[in-house]
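Blackboard transcription, Thursday session:
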Amino acid sequence: MATDQEPVLGIDLGTTNSACAVVRDGRASVVRRGDDRIIPSVVAAMSDGRWLVGTRAKKRRSVDPVNVIYSSKRLIGRRFGSAEVQEMRQRVPYRIVEGKNEAIMIEAGGKVVSAVEVAAHVLTYLRQMAEEALGRRVRRSVIAVPANFTDSQRSATRIAARLAGLDVIRVINEPTAAALAYGYIEDTDRVIAVYDFGGGTFDVTILQITRNVFEVLATSGEMFLGGDDIDEAILGLMVGAFEQQHGISLRDNPVALERLRAVAEQVKIQLSSQSGAAVHVEEVLPGQRSDLDFSLREADLRPYVDPIVRRTIPVCQDALRCAGLSPHQVDEIVLVGGTTRLPHVRSIVEETFGKKPQTSINPMSVVAVGAAIQGAALMGSLVPMADGGVSAPSAAASAVLLDVVPRSLGVHTLGGYVDFIIERNSAIPLEQTRFFTTTTDNQRFVRIQVCQGEDEVFENNLKLGELVLSGLRDAPRGEVTVAVTFEINADGLLEVRAMDKETGQQQVATMRVLGGLDDQEIEQMATRMASAGPGPSSRGGTVVSR
Amino acid sequence: MPTKNELREHLHALQAGLSSMTYYEFLGVRPSSDYVAIRDAYYDRAQQLHPDRFVAFGAGSLQRSAYAVYKRISEAFSVLSDPHLRVAYDEARLGGAHRLDDVARARRRSPQERQLSNNFARIYFRAAVKKLERGLLRAAWIDVQLGLSLEDAPVLRELENRIITHPEGPASLQAEVFR
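(Written on the board underneath:)
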């Protein structure tokens, strides 16, 4: 294998934190900047037009909450009107507004940016971090997304990567990446549960691996359940301690609360590896004698954490039920997400599945590592050698992953029902053709509504968009039949093309993706990103935008 | 592992066969091969010819060929691994077809069938529903049990319940079930 081959960056763009990894000399390693391996997925707009990303942006939360954008992964690729987005509007201090075509826009620092742009800022930061660490340019990447991401969310993530100057060679499911990091890709068939307890979300995915085919049997989750809830519990204890020490309640002091929340997170992290933690916070109320001394033992935290962690149990049971499996049929449990480092979380996992989870790889970076391994496998497969043969890659590098469609794809039919075109769990890439006939004389176009989901009723599924076939020839109704081919490519993205059945003439088929961005908007974002300069790297230090 | 040239030849042979080769020929199995043989052949082909194998060559004609060939491999497997579609295909083949047409391949599943993910559990479910309609309660019950052994799904449980509580259900079946 050529040693000077450009490395492929494996990216985990998380709701709360992000990480990236590369494979070099056959070994996967997490990219770091100083001691930082995990980058908060936070972007802050400064009043002077600059953008901050990562830890520095996160620190702005306590001083300038309205201009600090976090959890933007919850918004990407969704429609403004969706329940999730409306819920987010209630929860976050920054302003989420409606853009063109039901797109989601965010107002911060006197600018309006799309959720895609926010993700692009984080991805740019990761790319530059990798370039600094590797001392070379990085373009190619494999990016991981949740197994339940829809077509729109996958496309939006891809656009963000493109804006960040990354060429995405594959979009991979996060649980698949985690399983790959553990090397579960031999000939033995296995069922793996990926328990992903992150900062703000909880997901459990049941994967079946049969001869390198990664099949998502079921995925289930809680949109708002994560390490943040545990920070909140610790914060409550800290506020109580402060009140005891100083007789002052902090409940109505958002600045102090936000500052202590960051300390609470540190306490949680300490308690993930130690049996006790003690902190001293100076001047909780600036200018007053109000130092806080706080100590907590892991054992004493358990009763507070327990009800939060137990909420993951029914989610696991739901996923198992959907997969048609009982807990003992799960061969391995893989942990993902920082919250799984808490000893109590691990014991609940063991209790739920009846066996110990895998813990040898850092759950904060396991997805990035898996994505990097997939990238290396993609580039390393079949590297021609001088003798006309191919290099003999290791077992993991030689395997090809066969992914499946996570959700069925269908079109709207009479009466508001769905005609399913591609069934879930079909192996990709694949294509399926359907015929549509005109219903009126001289009909010039056919409009087809496309959705993803499993419900028979169209409205209960996620509407992806509308497909308009135009330029049909004049003919009595029923005489023009258009063959529409729905193709799911190797990244799980939908492509549509249409053809007049009689004349064999290619028709124009444009899919208007709801909440999506058109080329012009992407162009504008690219311009904004480019004018934002080299990004918030340590070289440039800061960025100027517009 | 085949050499690059062998692989290229294999790929081109299959590409040339896109308009004439049967699904069996495409997967390199016999029309009499059983499910396991077909599945194994599919996995072997997938490992060798998946478009991912050609990513390192860049977006060239080799990758496009691999993509076209691979889609047919998936199609062949999806038809041959589904007993109903395989029967339909074998009939079409007698009429000279090398491929099952789009309309036949796009067989609609009932809403209940769609709730099952195991192919064979779905077949047992369908068989049980038909037998129940014809009043063959005992046979239907056996099919449901076979389905449940593959996938413990609510739709199969509901059907089981319908059979057990059927007004014309023979007492013997009920006794057996509740024993």
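Lecturer's comment: The two ends of chain B are 56 Å apart (CA to CA).
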